Amino acid sequence: DPTFLAAYGGGMLAVYAAALALARVVFKNGPAEASLFAMGGIFANSGYMGIPLALVAFGPAGTLPAIVATVFMTITIVAIVTVLIETDPRRRTEGARIARDAAFAVLRSPLVMPALLGVLWSLTGLGLPTPVATFLDLLGAAAGPCALFAIGLFLVGKPIRQDLGEVGAMVAVKLLVHPFVTWVLAFHVFAVEPQWATVAVVMAALPSGANCFVVAQHYGVYVQRASSGILISTLASVVTVSLVFSFWVGN
To answer: pTM for the complete prediction?
Structure first.
């Protein structure tokens, strides 16, 4: 549904740009740190939380928009963040090689390439051999818990109070601003089909996903603040996601 992608994707990119500016202007972050602040403000935990919630709330019909949102978000945002980090002047001095290195970094990303391959394979209409599908299911089921375990290990002994104002702003963008902008676009601008529009708002209201930590850890940038943002947004989302479900899904 093009209107769904316009509403969800447009809201995601608009909030990302605003969060990027906030991190640069207010918190004086460099391009790499600002890109990860903005990622924490819009990259939802849709793969491990959103899709199961959509299935429970809307049945099988709700999983398609949730999957579309997850794949679109992963490919788009991870690519943007990778380019911004790779082109940070503090990380690079060989100007002529920046574009090439950034492009290769996107293609090599363990978050972008699998999603692209999955989309391409689904277009063929072919299934996977049972042993391969079973093996991939096992790996997929382990990915979320392993990422959360790594976040927990990283946070041991580190005070969450550090940079609490900045982390709090990131969480507010994720749990309040992102779903509000998506709601406006989905229900009042693009007139998305009601169930798909509701799924879009639910996906936007989810807490920050573990991939924010994965990217931060990979580059060694913004790791503690990304970890704290995931933890705090996940705890706070117990309230905010419940409110979203009671209002939009209940009605």
So the answer is: 0.83
